[in-house]
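Q: Convert this sequence to C-alpha cells.
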Amino acid sequence: MSSIFQRQQIANLITISRLGFLPLLFLAGILQQPVAFVGLFAIQAFLDAVDGLVARRLQIESDLGRRLDTVIDLAIWLPSIVIFVWLVWDEFTDVFSAYPHLFIIPTITVTLMYLTAYHYLHTFAAIHLYSGKLTAALIILLMLTMLLNRFYPVLGYLTACAGVMYHLEAITIYAIQKDQTDENVTSLWQMLRRQ
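A:
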C-alpha cells in the first residue's frame, strides 16, 4: 500500500519541489546574479515539463496535480518575470521602447486566458499545452540572449507569437468545452480529434 501511495505522488512531489526554487530565485535577484537566476529558472521550468511527463507515463494524473501545477506556475512565473526585468532593466527599457507590442500583446492575451478559465471553471487555471511548453522554452532562450545584451527581434517576435498562440489555443479549448475542460489535453488538435 505504501509503494502505491508513493507512486501516485511522484509527479506531485516533483511539482512541489519547484517551490524550493522560489527563495533561490529571490536570492539570485537580491545578489544581482542574473546568470544564476536564469539557470535556476531553467531548471525549475525543466521540472515543470518533467512532472507532467511522469504523470502521463505512469498514468497518475490527478485534479490535485493539475491544480498544484497551476498554482506553482503562477507563484514562480509572476515574481520571476519581475525579478528578471529588474536584473536586466537597462537592456529591457531599450527593448521595450523599441518593441512595446512584443510585451503588451502577450500580456493582454494571457490575462484573457486566465479570465476565460475563471469564467468557465470558476478558478484560475492554465491548461498545459505543447504550445505553452514551447513558449516557456523560448522565454528562457530570450532571457539568455538578454543577459548577453543581445536582443534578437526575430526571437522576440517568435516568442511573442508562440505565447499568443498558446493563449488563444487555451481560450478556444475553454470556450468549446466550457466547464468540462479536460486538463489532460495537450493541444486543440488533440481535443478536436477526441470529439
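Residues 89-195 form one domain.
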